[in-house]
């Protein structure tokens, strides 16, 4: 049996060392050989700005920045667990005094990462932007080696949960107006981080949240497992830029790639690459194959401008890939954002909160033909979970597919 190749890496940088930090790969005889030769030393970058201090000093500095008088374990009541992974777990919590709802992310402080982790939390507390989750505070657990980060709770869910709901219930397909709103929010948030010299490092559907009013918020930047502990999970590999997988230098354009894959998955309601059997195959697929593209499906046509924007964000060459500052000025995005949309209503429909699903515009798998006005009486869809593994099968009953008046998608 072949030895298992490690995929651990060092900590990525909190700040981009240079606006021109990308370095093209050295020529290799074979792409596959070049990738496999480097897997045993896979690196997500080196942390050049955060210098480790002793844990005790880091804890003292952290307590001065976030006094426990504001937040404590007794103040917050757990309402619901929202996620769990190695070393982290998230809960929906409520302030026992005010009744306010928050999200609490708890991170276990491993010995060698305590100091940089606490410094990262202190750093992100200074970020304030409409497209980034509001930071409310942090505190150290009195009973365990955990640090708790308190942020706003986004009641619309994540792109991951909304996409799963669309697939499960056959809800509205995201049209140009909804997609432009989501795309703009993602790249506006990334552009703000870039202006501060920060990288997100973990863009994927589960880290892009929606409020009940339809606002788009980035979360978990600099607090993902690959950042905190230097580990790249299989899920993270699926959204990682080619240069990150190869262990090359990278900058904000690696986040742009991850955003492009995420947007493409949400638009098509499926991961854009074919299924593979192993992490190595996924890495080879991303680093050696052609980048995925947004393609029309039967009954679903995407705007040429949206296709162009995504192609610019998924250029396999990091040096030629567009930056967020360029993408937010893309003509299609600017023009489409001028068309009004009730995102609050769209969120209600996409999460089926208090409304009946609008089956005029449904995710058809296979897509409903444009010349047909009815679907098969039933169909089955297998939805593959990308985090935690496993699959879930859903069945649809007979429903009608009818274009909107005038042929324009309502969203």
Automatic annotation (TrEMBL):
SUPFAM superfamilies: Protein kinase-like (PK-like) (SSF56112). It catalyses: L-seryl-[protein] + ATP = O-phospho-L-seryl-[protein] + ADP + H(+); L-threonyl-[protein] + ATP = O-phospho-L-threonyl-[protein] + ADP + H(+); L-tyrosyl-[protein] + ATP = O-phospho-L-tyrosyl-[protein] + ADP + H(+). GO terms for molecular function: ATP binding; MAP kinase kinase activity. Its EC number is 2.7.12.2. Residues 1-40, 364-411 are annotated as: Disordered. Residues 76-333 form the Protein kinase domain. PROSITE patterns: PROTEIN_KINASE_DOM. It holds the Pfam family Pkinase. Keywords: ATP-binding, Kinase, Nucleotide-binding, Transferase. The keyword ATP-binding applies. It is an enzyme of class 2 (transferase). Residues 1-13, 364-381, 392-401 have a biased composition (Low complexity). It comes from the Eukaryota. Belongs to the protein kinase superfamily. STE Ser/Thr protein kinase family. MAP kinase kinase subfamily. This is mitogen-activated protein kinase kinase.
